[in-house]
Amino acid sequence: MRDRAEYARKGIARGRSVVVMQYADGILFVAPNPSKALHKISEIYDRIGFAAVGRYNEFESLRLAGIRYADINGYTYNRNDVTGRGLANLYAQQLGMIFTDSIKSLEVEIVVAEVGDSAEEDQIYRLTFDGSVFDEQGMAVIGGQSEAVAGRLKERYRPGLPLGEALDAALVALTEPGGERSPVGQLEVAVLDRTREQRKFQRLAGPRLERLLTSSTPAPAPEPTLPEKGAPEVDTGPPTAPDGDIDTGSEP
Amino acid sequence: MNNLFTNTGSSSFSGFLGEHAPDLLPFRNQQLAAPVGDQIPHATTIVVVTCAGGVVMAGDRRATSGNIISQRDMQKVFRTDDYSCLGIAGTASTGIEMARLYQVELEHYEKMEGRSLSTEGKANRLATMIKGNLPMAMQGLVVVPIFAAYDPNLDAGRIFGYDVGGGPYEQFQYHSIGSGSIFAKGSLKKLYRENASPEDAVLTCVQALYDAADDDSATGGPDVTRKIWPAVAVITADGFRRLSDDEVAGYVQAMLEARMTDPDGPTAPLR
């Protein structure tokens, strides 16, 4: 059992972190992701979004199952009857079952977020490979170095941040101190925007994302989105190796 | 529940539903003791007209059971996704259920695959669903929808018609289904203008529905006293938009005013 947990933790720690946090109009998802096609962030239902780190094939099958669960419940009852809590419970059961019954546990960590009519009704659930569910308040960080990232995010996080500032806080948290920020093309950003009609999930990319980034860039950060400057710092490859210390899972 | 995690066959929601919970499908293969078609409310007339860079769909609001008007404000034009909509004629309950399933079908595919179905793909998918309803149609529970979409590849509106066995049959310029469709089509034939603006196309639809209601007892005309107007949807590159009651009221009032002096409506030039 302990070996299995160790194995899963090492697998998860290899990937880069993903930040999920509340902002003024809903919930923001930010993931450094060099791939345009293989998403770490996805829509599940009208109000529910999904973010994951770890093995792609494993969290992808969880994502598809979540969409099936949501669509079948929404079709059987009503669209309002699909809840993030129900989905988090489903994932928890599946993850827990695989952790105890299978030879290998899933090497994933996921977030299920549901946007409500007001900020108080927003919900962010973080689920780990063994099926534990954490009801997070305001923000959640998953993936390698999640503690360091969460620490940096806590310093800047306030309830009700405007979108631009929230995005900036997330990027500061995801960037190692002194490191270079991921260029726009290597960011996967999405929101659950409570002001939208029906389907609240929206991906932010291209010119709109660039505008958000430039409008919110604070003065002290020197040239945040110029990857060609400072050749030795360029790091555009996919995350294949640990970005920092491996989380050995040895903390109590 | 295990099905949720193991089913990886296809991105079709109705396909998954058939395996996971077949009792939720609108079409079942059970035999009814007697045909019930006449006792169940029927939805009536839908018209669709292409316009410059899009398509307009409009439906009357009446549902009938035999000679009884069972509902005056029924909604039979449904948004199916950002760029398409569905109108239903025939058995109202089965039609509504089919529209609901079809909406989920398109959204499900989009979320699973990360892309929308092609316009032809959407039309074919609907044909399969109608074919599935064939046994029920033989018992009198006939549903014949009409599908309209904005095709981003062609930058134009497209119309697909069906019969009880499925389809699709692509229609050009305009099309109509339901009990008043004969009269609506006659009207559309004379009033259709190539590359009309969406506003003009809406007016064409409102005129055609009035002509259908004029001659078909099952089609409802605009209800001025109760302020019940036709349901109108416009789909262009900007996406699906359902016109508000006030907007439709404007079109209907303009039409009614002209018909006060000319009850048969606008005439087409003879030469």
From TrEMBL, chain B:
Predominant localisation class: cytoplasm
Catalytic activity: Cleavage of peptide bonds with very broad specificity
Lyase listed as a keyword: no
GO terms of biological process kind: modification-dependent protein catabolic process; proteasomal protein catabolic process
Pathway participation: Protein degradation; proteasomal Pup-dependent pathway
GO molecular function annotation: threonine-type endopeptidase activity
Active-site residues, as the UniProt record annotates them: T44 (nucleophile)
Any one of the GO CC terms: cytoplasm
Propeptide: 1-43
Keyword Nucleotide-binding assigned: no
The protein's enzyme class: hydrolase
Subcellular location per the Swiss-Prot or TrEMBL entry: Cytoplasm
PROSITE patterns per the UniProt record, alphabetical: PROTEASOME_BETA_2
Activity regulation description: The formation of the proteasomal ATPase ARC-20S proteasome complex, likely via the docking of the C-termini of ARC into the intersubunit pockets in the alpha-rings, may trigger opening of the gate for substrate entry. Interconversion between the open-gate and close-gate conformations leads to a dynamic regulation of the 20S proteasome proteolysis activity.
Function: Component of the proteasome core, a large protease complex with broad specificity involved in protein degradation.
Subunit structure, interactors included: The 20S proteasome core is composed of 14 alpha and 14 beta subunits that assemble into four stacked heptameric rings, resulting in a barrel-shaped structure. The two inner rings, each composed of seven catalytic beta subunits, are sandwiched by two outer rings, each composed of seven alpha subunits. The catalytic chamber with the active sites is on the inside of the barrel. Has a gated structure, the ends of the cylinder being occluded by the N-termini of the alpha-subunits. Is capped by the proteasome-associated ATPase, ARC.
Listed PANTHER family: ATP-DEPENDENT PROTEASE SUBUNIT HSLV, METALLOPROTEASE TLDD
Family designation: Belongs to the peptidase T1B family.
Protein name per Swiss-Prot or TrEMBL: Proteasome subunit beta
Organism this protein belongs to: Acrocarpospora phusangensis
